[in-house]
Amino acid sequence: MRKLIVAVCALMLCSLYALAGDQPNTPKAEFFGGYQFTHLEGTGSANGFNFAVNGNFSDTFGITGDFAAAYKTQGGVSYNNYTYTFGPVLSLRANKAYTPFVHALIGGDHGSASVPGASASGNGFALMAGGGVDANFARHLAFRVAQVDWMMVHGSGGTSGKNYRISTGIVFRY
């Protein structure tokens, strides 16, 4: 299953790159901030926020730094999960109304759980693959309709690959 997901993402990345044309008004930087719904294997669903900074080197290729947090309290136990990932992003800027993109991100994960009087935490490796679409309102403003990412987290001696997140919010472009 993982090989299939990797193959599909690679095909999407190559397709977007081949279809894209030069755009003279490509933003040099993009800043995203918004809401995030996360499903984490073993702890269930959590809510939080997602921030990303993207530097564009051409009309199709850029590098993204993505920072996210998810929080959940269940049965008196508070769960927190933080990810910080970086990687390439390919965008298709052929249409002025919307901008689809795909990315592959790699970085770290920090998870913690606490009850009154006790807590535990751990750090690990995070890998994300996904993409989304931005609805362009103006040259410097867009709404991220949806960003969907598959997440693999490896830490504390185990690997969790049945995770995903869905984000939405505002994109500022410069």
Walk me through this protein's architecture.
An 8-stranded antiparallel β-barrel has the order 1-2-3-4-5-6-7-8. The longest helix has 18 residues, at 2-19. With 174 residues, it is mainly β. The model is unreliable at 15-22 (pLDDT under 50). It is elongated. A hairpin with a 4-residue loop joins β2 (44-56) and β3. The protein has one helix spanning 2-19; strands at residues 29-40, 44-56, 61-74, 77-91, 98-115, 118-138, 141-155, 158-173. The protein has 1 helix and 8 strands. It has one domain (2-173): Porin.
Supply the helix-strand structural class: mainly beta
Separate helix tally: 1
Enumerate the strands of the largest sheet in spatial order, edge to edge or round the barrel. Answer: 1-2-3-4-5-6-7-8
Helical content class: 10-25%
- Average pLDDT: 88
- Write down the CATH class: Mainly Beta
Strand and helix order: HEEEEEEEE
Biggest β-sheet description: 8 strands, antiparallel, barrel
Distance between the termini: 38 Å
Query: What's the gyration radius in Å?
Result: 17 Å
Strand residues, percent: over 45%
Q: How many independent structural domains?
A: 1
Level-2 CATH architecture: Beta Barrel
Q: Which outline best applies?
A: elongated
Question: What fold name stands as the CATH topology?
Answer: Porin
Total strands: 8
Unreliable spans are: 15-22
